[in-house]
Amino acid sequence: MEELVQLKDFHDLTEEELLSKLNSSGEYGLSQQEAERRLQIYGPNELAEEEKVPWWKFFIRQFKGPMVYVLAAAALISLVMGEKLDAGAILIVILINATIGFFTEYRAEKALQALKSMVVRQVKVLRDGEVRLVASEELVPGDIVLLEAGDVVPADGRLLEAYLMAVDESPLTGESVPVDKFVKTLPKDTLLPDRTNCLYAGTAVVRGSGKALICATGLNTELGRISKMLQTVEKQEVPLEARLAKFTHFLIKLVLAIVVATVALGVLEGNKLLPMLQTGIALAVAAIPEGLPFVATMTLALGVHRMAKLNALVRNLASVETLGSTSVICTDKTGTITVNKMTVREHVPASDEARELMFKVAVLCNNATINGENSIGDPMEIALLKWASDNGYNPTQIREQYHRLKEDPFDSTTMRMATYHEEWVAVKGAPERLLDDCKFIYDEGGLRPLSLDIRNRWQENVERLASMGMRTLAFAFGKSLDELAFLGVVGIMDPPREEVREAVASCREAGIHVIMITGDHVTTAVAIAKEVGIINQDKFEALEGRQIAEMSEEEIAKRAREVAVVARVFPEHKFKIVKGLQKAGEVVAMTGDGVNDAVALKQADVGIAMGIQGTEVSKEAADIILEDDRFATIVNAIAEGRRIFDNIRKAVMYLLCCNLSEVLIVFGGILLRLPAILLPLQILWINLVTDVIPALALSLDPAEADTMKRPPKRKDEDILTKAHQVKVGIFGTVMFLGVLGITVYVLKCLGFSPLKATEISFHSLVLAQLFFVFNVREASFLRRPSDLLNNPFIFFGVLASILLQVSITYIPIFQKVLRIVPLSLNEWGIVLIGALIPTTILQLYKLIRGE
Questions:
Q1: What's the whole-number mean pLDDT along residues 8-32?
Q2: What is the pLDDT of residues 565-582, one digit of tens each?
Q3: Is 332 a catalytic residue?
Q4: Which residue windows are transmembrane per the record (predicted)?
Q5: Buried-most residue among 3, 45, 330, 592 (CB within 10 A)?
Q6: Which domains does the chain have, with CATH numbers?
Q7: Can you say whether the dihedral through the CA atoms of 306, 312, 317, 323 is positive or negative?
Q8: Per-residue pLDDT reduced to its tens digit, 494-506
């Protein structure tokens, strides 16, 4: 028995071969003793659980990084020098940023727990020839299980008996139409979605009943295979985090260079080492935008709030900006592009009289029921009832008028269903078979023989509907099955959502490539893709999963922008597609709703799960959950992501300009042998309080007019481009010169004391930076005054910061800590003039440049 292995592929073996391989009996099952022995060999039928990361490890992780190390070093030097207040303030900054990072990152990875919840707890099993209730964890290969409508399949197995059985396999395949199940052996090359003689763990029986031989349990099931893949997926680095990390490293190098140069220059000039180290700390504190992590996090959090109003729930803050960087959307078809409701899109009757009979047959040869939005039954049959009802045929009245006497259920041999009534038989089925079964046709000439030529013409109609991606059904009626008259055919499909075409067009305008990835047939997928504009030219590529399996990731990367549709895919194909696209440098957003999507959702730069149709597994693996399952919501969220990045860029630019002006003021004061213009705690106050409020207000700026008319950012694009860096240099220098000019003026011309001059410089710089927030936007408000009014939060933010700055001069504790005293009205006038000079110069500069 120890030599037995769990079977991976069992669709192509006969019942006798399977029972022999697994040493079991279809009539008696396993003995209890044998089942217990196998349980020791194979282990329990459950999914392994990944070890959770405790919360404290997430917190400790926040204290890693170059910015933290530099601030910690500054705090340590301050402590050694006896500046306990400075050291304490810097340590508080570190703690605040770590706390923000902790709450941003700490979210539970529950995908495996959700997977485990899909496995049923008890199941009917044949043991020792008796039916027993057994815990699903105790199932072993070779067990015989009995299943009926409402049961969840506990493990992978092969059907031995099936009576009108249909199974919802959407968790694995993504397709919502139940799959009819049969017992016949299938060819070896049959794909998983077409293996109608197999059952898979986590799927649900929606109709009929059956008996199955368990062939694989636990991690050897399809569900288990996905679980193992989920554990191996490493999430891609978030573009915003990468950009901020790159920016931080650049900033640290710059800060260290400035500090070393300043300390060395001061010592060479004859100054003592300790005061120069203190000046170096002031420079380090001035150069590092301590408020940046808080501003970036709050900008993302505000974006999350706005996205929630757009029906997009964000589970991972950084994914908000990543969505804005998206260059490729890999979208599911069913429920995202389409409405997820089978609908009769077209019908072709043999005549007007036949059309009326088609509606009656659609109602009578049908086991579904509809009651408003509440429908019960097979989706295809529900579609037929709604079609008849929408055309004025009341299903209840028709069924009362024509009582059903008996029914021949649909089976794979006859490919039809028939219901018997008092005077006639109603039949529906596969058109190619029903055309062969009918002797007559009910056309404009009445009832007449169905000739070969007429059959061929109708076959062309059927092929036309099929080429448009529709599932086809034919209708017939007659006094008996031997005298059937052909009535016509209908084309049924899950139609696209109305807004999708416009959303796809927006993606194209924004430089975003859309690929439809589906478990459905390629003909259906291509038809839908053409209808919504994913395919809008004659030359396109539509691939199948088996082709993806044969391609390398490099080949996928090369053809990334040529492929429009990938059909008949499995989880590993989706995963491979995402990795190939990422290898091509694309930022990939992947949508999904089933267990089969979980691996690709986790691998993608942004995983987007469906809130209505999605499984818990897909939701836990995703970064964003759509509450309305609409593709258009993704496009709206991308626009929001782009707005957020633009605003983070403005905030970074604003903070960096402010920091540069502070560095230059400290450095310039040393060169000009002026008294300390800014003290370390004053700089911390500016960076953490007065600068942060306007920076947050910038995060609420509305989107630019061209937000969705420009291509996505490159994955390696810096948060500040060279053009932005030049502006930072110019703007920071102008602010520095303005404040330095006022400092020199009050010291040399007005004879202010060094302490008073320092305070004037402090207040002037704060106000200059507050006014500077209006310069961060691309256009000059002198040229476009409306920009002053489109974000009132900036006005309120600047006003709040001004009031805060003025008020601290009259609060004793701030006077002591920041070494300031109340100013006279004339002195405030000097501060205001010093603050307005840089803004006036910059606005005139932008106006002259035509911005």
A1: 92
A2: 999 888 888 999 999 999
A3: yes
A4: 66-82, 88-108, 250-268, 280-304, 651-671, 677-700, 728-748, 760-776, 788-808, 828-848
A5: 592
A6: 15-49+114-232 (2.70.150.10), 55-107 (no CATH), 239-305+640-848 (1.20.1110.10), 312-338+496-629 (3.40.50.1000), 343-493 (3.40.1110.10)
A7: negative
A8: 999 999 999 999 9
